[in-house]
Every structure is written in C-alpha cells, then in structure tokens.
## 1
Amino acid sequence: MGPDEAGNANRDRRRARLASSLRENLKRRKAQQRSRAGDAAPAPAPDALASGSPPADEERR
C-alpha cells in the first residue's frame, strides 16, 4: 500500500467515524426535543367522573 492509498484509507475511516458521530448526535437531539415537547404539553383534562363530581345529567335530579 503506497502513501496515497494509506492516506485515502485514513480519510475514509475518519469520514465514516464523523458520519457515525453526526448520526448519533442527531438521534440524541431528536430524543431530547421529543422529551422537551412532552414536558411542555399540557396535562390532559381530568374526567368528570374521576374528579368525584357527578355527571351533568345527575345534577338535574
């Protein structure tokens, strides 16, 4: 293997490592963004029965 071939192999390995690192960083950032979006989402409205109040049709009786 000549010097050019060795340099090309090193460059190819470096590019592969960089591409892998960038993919992992993107996955991590997307996961963090999904987590933050879930934290910022409003809590679901409590169900009337779960809150202990009677349903609307029972209040009229």
## 2
Amino acid sequence: MLGSCRLFSGRRSVSEIANMQNLAERDLGTKSSTTATRNTPETRLSLLSIIPPELLAEIFSLAVLSGPIMPDPACARARTHMKWVLAHVCNRSRAIAFSLPRLWTEVDIHFCGKHGSPETYSAAILQAQLERSRHLPLHIVFDCDLGLGHLYTASNAVAAHQVLLLRQLIGHCARWATVMIRGRDPILSVLAEVKGGLPHLAELGINTLGSCPDFQTTAADAFADAPNLRVVFINQNPHLGSLPGALTVDSTRIERYAGWNTWAGHAAVLQRCAATLRACCLDTASVEPSPVVVLPALRTLCVRRATILQFVTAPALEEFMGCGTGAVPIISFLEHSGCALKRLVMCHTRGTCASRPWTGNPTSSTSSSSTCVAI
C-alpha cells in the first residue's frame, strides 16, 4: 500500500506540474497579448484619455502664437491649419478643441493658387470659426495676392468670393485685434463698410496691389476710430502700388509706424504720435514743405527719401538707416537733432535695398547687403 500510495502521490505531482506549466504558458500568452495591445495605435491613442481636459486644452493652446503682423504670413498660415487639424484626432480632442474659443481666434485667408477658393475656404467655414471664437479678439490675415498680384487680377467669381469673406469679417470688426489686408479694388474699397469703433485693434497692415483710388476716397477713414492702435504698416512693398494710399489714423499711441504714404499722411501721424513713436520707416513719392516734427521718443528711423530729413528731428535717436539718401542730408539731420547715434546704415541705391526697411519690423534692419555700409 505504501508503495502504491507513493506511486499515486507521484502521479499527482506530475499532474500538478503539468497544470502549473499550462497556467504559466497561458499567463505568458496573456501578458504578451496585453503588451502587443498596448503597442497598437488605438491603445496608445486611448492613453490620452487619462490626460485631464484642462491640460489638453493648454497643450492645444500652444498652437496659438499670436504676435506682430509678419511680412510673410506663411507662419500664421501653418499655425491656423494646425489648429484645424487637431479637431480630427479623436472625439474627445475634437470636443475640447471646439469648446476652446481661443483656438479659433486666428483667421488666415490666402488667395494664392487654390488657397482661399470657394472650395477650400467657404463662407460656412469662416462663419463656424467666428462663432467658435465667441467674443474674443480676432487676429486676421486676409491676403488677396494671387501669387503675382501686381500683374494679375482675380476673376469675377474669385473677386466676389473675396468680397463675401471680407464682409463677413467686417461684421465682427469690433473684435479685430491685429489685421493685415492686402488687395486691390474692389477689395480694399469694401473697408469703407467698417462702422463703429475698433476698441481692440492694436496692429494694422494695409497693402495695396496697384492703384486703389476707391480706397483713398472711400475707405481712408475706416480705421480712424482705433484708440489702442500701436503698430501701423501701410504699403510695406511700395513697388506693388503705383499710387500711395492715404490712410487716416487718429490713434495717439502708435509706437511703430512704417510704409509708403503721402507726406501729408506721414506728417499727420508723426505729429499726432510724437510722444509715443519709437520706430518708424518712411517712404513717399514727394515731400511738400511742412513744419518740423520733433519726435522725442524715437529710437529707430529709416528713410528712403533725403528730403524727409529736413522736416524731422529726433534727439533720442539711436539707429538710423538711409537708402539712397546720400551722406550730406544725413550729417545735417544728425547735427540739428543732436542725438547720440549708436548705429548708422547707409544704402547707396534706393532700389537695391528696397525690401530691407519693410521687413515688418523697423528695428530689425541689417547691413548684410554689399551695397550697405554700417558705421
């Protein structure tokens, strides 16, 4: 009996060992399956569900990089498209994106190639974005340059679509914070429909593509009521416009002012904002005699016509850039200004460095061109 018991006991041990091995194999299989499942795209995506919605909202908001108006809006275009794409990640991310008004405050519309056509940017899409941004200030880039905007004009269908979208934006002009608009008649003339004040407008860029007489006569006062305007660019690329645009700006707080305008338009802005203006870049077709404007806060000045220097004084000037102005007018200007200049850049030819003062930031001009001499 003892021997048989031992034999039976031994058989039980073998059976138990076999069962344990089976359990171990099944357990290893389960772990392997679990690991494989965790490495699938669906599971990795589901791990986002443990992130609090508040944190996801902050992550999504990193795409909102509102800054000064850029001369090349490509950066703004990429940021805006990024915000639209994140709505397609999953239902949760989509819901969070749609519930955050600040993700929809940058309106970026380009009519270059297929961009901005009725098929790619419809009035319905724009209306949806305006509604999702709720009542927050808007940052707008509205570019009607068709690649070579100074050579070609838009078709009637495209022009009508441009006017339709611009009128939608004008309906929310009280929310405008930064605006850059580039186009030709009849696009810019639509700005005459801007009614009421612009309390949030801080940065404004207007570029005309060719002669825009309707803009000068009907829309020149569209931005007159913008008390918080700080930065103004008018026709940053003067070769695109055969006539200067006379724009009325009544703000007394402008800190940066640049562009191509009539001298009367320039002088009016300089006189009104003399106490706050810190950087300006001026170009004009001709200069009519006018009273000398004293700019006590001006630190950076760029001019592309020497006669301008006869009617401007800047005692605190630190940087000066002159394109095609010659040395004699500059020396005379520095003498009667009495400033302690830290940086002087002279460009021998107006045309060679035409784009340098119009970088969108008058304080960022450099002397890398071989035609420039920095002292």
## 3
Amino acid sequence: MDVLDRAGQRDTVYWNFVYQPLPDADGRISGITVVATDVTEQVLARRRLEHVGQELAANYATLHTAHGASQVANEALSHSNAQLTYANQDLDNFVYAASHDLKLPVLNLAGLFDELRRGVSFTDAAEEALLVPLITQALHQLSTSLDDLAALGRAQQAAHAPAEPMMLEALVEEILHTLEPQVRAANARVSTDFAARPTLTYPRASLHTVLLNLLSNALKYADPTRPARIHCSLWLAAGEPVLWVKDNGVGFDAAGHGPELFQLFRRFHAHVEGTGVGLYLVNRLLLAKGGHLEVDSQVGAGATFRAYLGPA
C-alpha cells in the first residue's frame, strides 16, 4: 500500500495480514482479530535477489556464448597452425627432393661441358676466354645452390632430433677445425666465453649448423685490411640461452634491410661467393625451437649476431 512518511512523501510499504476469529463468552464469533506485520524489507530484499539472479543468468549466458565462440576460434587457429606446419613440412620435403633430383642432371651437364671443352675448339679465342669462365662459374653456382638446398632439407629434418648435452667449447673447436683454411686465409683469431653455461642440451645437428653458419659468415666477410677477430660467447636472457658471434669484418647496413635480413637467397655483398641460404637456415632452425635470430651491423664496423636458442 502507499503511505505518507513524516516528510510528506508518498512511499510504498508491504504488510502481511493475519486474520483470526474473535469469539465471545458464549463461543460465538463476535469479531475478527487482525495482526499486521511490516514485511517491506523482506519484499524489497527478495526483489533485489531476483534482479541479481536475472543479471547472473544473463552474464552466464553471455559468458557461455563467448566461451563457445572462443572454442571455435581456438579450433580454427589450431587447424590453421596444423595446416601451416604441414605446408612447411611439404615445402622442406619438396626442397630436399628437388635438390637431389636436380643434382644429377647438373653433374651430367658439367661433365658434358668438360668433354665439349676438350673435344671442340673455339674459332674465336677472345670469345672462348669470355664464355668458358662464365659457363663454368654458372655451373658451379648452380651446383652450390643445390648443395645448400639439400643441406637446408637435412637441417630441417634434424631440427626434430632429440636434444643431447654438449660441451660448447669442444663443439666450436670441432667447427673451427673444419674451417681451418678460412681461418688461415683471414688471419683470424677466435675467442670464446661459455662461462655462463659451458654445457648446453640441444639437438646437436641444429646447434652445429647454427654455429657453423655464423662462424663461417664471420670468416667469409672478414675485412681484408685487418686481421679477423671473432668472439663467440653464450649469455642468458631471462633464463634463455643466447649465442653471440661478434666480428670486426666489413659489416653491412642491417637497419636498412629490415625484415628481408633472413629471407631465402638474400645476400648483402656481391663480391663474396655465396647463395644466401645460411642465415635463412639458421633462423628457421631457431624458430623451430621457439627462438629467433637478431643482428646488429654497420658498414665497416663488423657484425654481431645473437641466436636465441629458445626456452632452456
């Protein structure tokens, strides 16, 4: 019912009425006893609870819908990731197979050209002096590119090999022994610092490929005007092992190349022989383990490569 409070404002209150018969001395009903109880607070509290319940039900419905949409999105993302993984595997398998299938025809072509050189004479000596080196160089570059692509396929397969503990110092010594001719040619001195983690558990073939490419790059792009100085070390960044390879070589404009730094067949110095597969391969191997490759370099100021190896 509506009532007026002391301030003269109309207000709504709720009462609970209990009616009981009122008998007289002879037992006859002579009246009614009415007991009224103010239940306004209980009614308002119940209404508030009902309102809260409705809000909770609406929120639950919204969350349930959002959860369903999230599940659909996660399933779509997982499907896309799986397709991307399969596509990368197919690409790696294709590259590996194609490099092997093309290797034999290239070898045959090189052999036929050698036979042709021995059995046929050019009538123009100047033309012979020009064309023969060009053809020889082209065949060599093609053969080298196929070898690098085959190595890329093998390395991608090796990236899924189980991890094993390795002494970093011993691994670097093994690689430098392989690169001994390049070390001598560059008059290089290689120093190391693996005090932060002398032993590392990692797929051996992957780590060998990463170090081999970074060290051979440092030697390949040594500055001919000064002895090469290369420093290889390992540091921890938020618990993640990071390999550093720093050199005092010719360097390149790293900031100017941006995202194309680690693209396949990307090269920075035309005067140095190479196919542009090495850094692409290193970055792919690191990405497969949750890591990545970074570089700081300026022309004439050497280069510093940081290989983030992924969660330890």
## 4
Amino acid sequence: MNTMNTPFKPRRYNDAQKAEAINFCLKEKLSCAKAAQRLGLHPSSLSRWLRQVTLIKEKHYPLIVAC
C-alpha cells in the first residue's frame, strides 16, 4: 500500500483523554513537549488543550488563574 496517496486522518481524543494528558503535564511539572513525548502525543495538541483550559479558567475564575 502506498502511504503517500493515503489521506492523513488525525487521531481523535475524547475529553477524558485530554484531561488525563493535561493533568499528567501539570502534576509532573513537565513542559508540553516532554509530556507529549512521554504520552505519544503531538506537542502542539497538548499545548492547545492546555491553552484552552487556561482560557476557560480565566473566563470563569479570574482570581484562580495563577494556581
């Protein structure tokens, strides 16, 4: 099979999987790149998920963002 002509289909992660990856990154105090490498994720995916969570926290809990 020639993979050059096969369209790339990105892997989908559910909210529980994303939360687990984010918690791992924060709990272990790792950079997104290191955590993503250990979890087998693309660094930009984990970075985006973490950024989205941070934006939600800022919107709903502006005084707790520094935690």
